[in-house]
Amino acid sequence: MTGDRSQACDLGDAPFTPGQAKACTVREVLDRVGGKWSIGILVAASQGPVRFTELERFVEGISRRMLTLTLRNLERDGLLRRTVYPTVPPKVEYTATPIALELYESLVALTSWAERHRIAIAEARAAYDRAHGPVDPGPASVAGRA
Hints:
transcription regulation; Transcriptional regulator; mainly alpha; WH-like_DNA-bd_sf
């Protein structure tokens, strides 16, 4: 997680009410599974064991470092299982855990929806930008426009 949201959730010395703690946990989970790279990785791993290099090819635009970090976080969250085989060179595979497999249909539905509506969304953005000027994608502009 990044930005102010993670700081609000990660303050160990701040007491949370049960509702605040629950909202924080849900937000953290949604941030992880809805992350830019996580969806593609989880979809690929839900099809069966997948190797690092296969994920590099499948997840378009991801750097090796970001793939490594995302895999580590998904494994930490219990969404991926990493298996190292004692071969030379070592063979490493990633598989989706049962909770990730439960999430799979939702991720496919979300990516299918995005594919179906990407042109309409691009057209809506262009029309908005013509009428109002482009929106700065930074966090300050989002907060300022709310």
